[in-house]
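Write out a sequence, fold above all:
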Amino acid sequence: MTHFLSRWMALSLSLALLAFPASLRAEAPPTAPVEEDAAAPAEGASSVPSENPPAEEPPSEATAGTTESNETRPTEEVQPSTEEQPPEQVAEPEAPPAPTPAVEPVPEQPKAIAGSTRKSARDYSVPYYQQKRPQWALELAAAARSGFGSEGRIAGSGSSGVRSFQILGEYQPLWFQSAGVLGLGVSAGLYSTDPSNQVTRNLAGLLSYGAQARYEAKFIRNQWVVPTVGYASEWVKYSLQSGASGTVQAGGIFYGAMVLLSAFDEASAAEMYANLGVSRVYLLAESRSREGTDANLTLSGRTYFFGLRFEF
């Protein structure tokens, strides 16, 4: 029995020794965590102020002296400045800007047409009337003798003393001026006989009208001499003293040449273009051949015409 009690006490003492350190560890206060420098509190955590505020450090000797001097220094009164202020400067009125000189507008250069064989842009070194391609022409021509031709006749009278005056209007299409100039026109004329050989009833006894096509061999600007060739058809209406009247149709080829008068006096040519729109003036000479006849009137042979031609 005694042995049993001794063993039971020894076992109880061992168990008590084993359990004592664990209870001490559970009752011991937790150790404070190490504070991080300038660490911000975690998100959602509330900051609790410390119950024990940090102790205030005693001021240093230099700081204490400065504080005492500031407390004992009397307040200085600010005295108003007695210095004279400079007078205010009044801004002078600004001068108006100088007028801008007027700039003359530069004429727009025409654009070159695709596929064109000529330059459409204006060359200011050449007078403008010489660069302009004429589209219309007016021609005045006359034949002093043999107006009906070298073999022309009026029934009952010769051909001597028959004069011819003609006026022609002509159109020159611009699209056919890259290889010479083509002209299509109409004409009107008057024939007069010698006063000593009256064969017509009045001055309008011999009138004519017609049409013609002309080609001018003109290839360069300001060409002095221009050869011409063409075909003309004419209807002559007559009324004779004998009472006979009718119309004769005659036609044939003509050729000749034109001399550019505008090239001899460019100043007058430029003035004529500015005032009348005439870009070229020619002196012409032509030889015309016509064939046509009826019982009272015959137009045959060659006739020489001289005159002036105006192109614009």
Remarks:
- Helices lie at 2-27, 61-72, 128-131, 266-276.
- The CA atoms of residues 106 and 124 lie 12 Å apart.
- The radius of gyration is 63 Å.
- Residues 33-51, 62-69, 112-120 have pLDDT under 50 and may be disordered.
